[in-house]
What we know:
Blueprint: E1 7-9, E2 15-17, E3 19-20, H1 31-41, H2 53-73, E4 80-83, H3 86-100, E5 107-111, H4 116-126, E6 131-135, H5 145-151, E7 156-160, H6 174-181, E8 187-191, H7 203-206, E9 210-214, E10 225-229, H8 255-293, E11 297-299, E12 310-315, H9 320-329, E13 332-333, H10 349-353, H11 358-361, E14 364-368, H12 375-393, H13 397-406
Helix pairs in contact: 1-8, 2-8, 3-4, 5-6, 8-12, 9-12
Amino acid sequence: MPVLPRGHLGKQGEVMKKVYLDHIAATPLHPEALEAMRPYLGEAFGNPQSLHSAGREALEAVESAREDVAGLIGAASSEIYFTSSGAEANNFAVKGLALGQQARGKHVVVSAVEHSSVLNSVKALEKQGFSSTLVPVDRFGKIDPAEVEKALTKETVLVSVMTANSEVGTIEPVAAIAAVCRPRGVLFHSDAVAAAGSVPLDVKALGVDSLSLAGDQFYGPKGSAALFVRKGARILPLIDGGIQEGGRRGGTENVAGIVGMGRAARLARVEMEARTAALRPLRDRLFEELPRRIENVVVTGSRTDRLPHHASFCVEFVEGEAMLLSLDMKGVAASSGSACTSKALKASHVLLAMGLDHATAQGSLVFSLIGTTTDEDVDYLLEVFPPIVERLRLMSPLYTQFLKERGS
Length: 408
């Protein structure tokens, strides 16, 4: 398991405890994944498409990693296509599958809480004549399969609903949604970037036609990701070029990144159960303790159908950015939502879709854990966070108004 530094120098040189709780943005690289990558960052530099021995060595490494990634999600290795990121995999799936079926229709269905890479891919399709329907969610961020069924038309060729939401941790009923799509011949893609490697996934049992995953979510390297595409599903390339990835993604393969992702996927299969057992109690402590220590804190997402390492909240009368910066000054790293939108400084579309008002949604916080997170780390967060909230609320006109109305 990767080991993170436990402290750093603060003001006047004193050692400050360092607690990293933003692993939904990226996990540290597993030492075994790094060791597997080393040869392909140095002496084993061959191009997998070359016919000589150096090329064959690189190709064998890529294909071995493909088998390991396929094994993590119960796919065949021939159904795995490597990409540079989860966002690219989502673009590849949404655009490639929809365009591949456009002779049958030009309508797609997505949930209101999808990642921006899915939503923006749909916007790109709309510029090419497609129409779309956004399916609503309940107050926990969960999609009702009946709402997906209601949104389907004779023109629908693709549905895309994520496996789990990175902002609120809710796990979606993917198998039930797939069961709605399959009898109608509608392809179903699921963005599983936040879930793969953290919860068990089997693409055959889920019934999906396509699924995205990224290595940096389960201790693999950044710049490594993959798309599962069920054999027989027609998909057009996103990147035109040569014969790489079965002719579906041109460009020289990122051999070291692919190898690292493959090793991380193999380790995730072995270690997932133990990781989960260690993380759930720590996550649940946050759910129990934070609302008890701080008034007017809203838990976001489902408490039951949830990622095991994910705890998310909205702290009323305080902005998320101010809390994040204050926590960072105390050595605690957290996030306020998706890493792809965390600097946008606007209310999360996910939280708004769940029915939260703009003011409350602005106070969102996400704490995401890994196997090296300790009880002491949680203790430290619970010690330093309440005074931060108290200090920031004293500067909030909304909080002053709230106290007046309450009669405090």
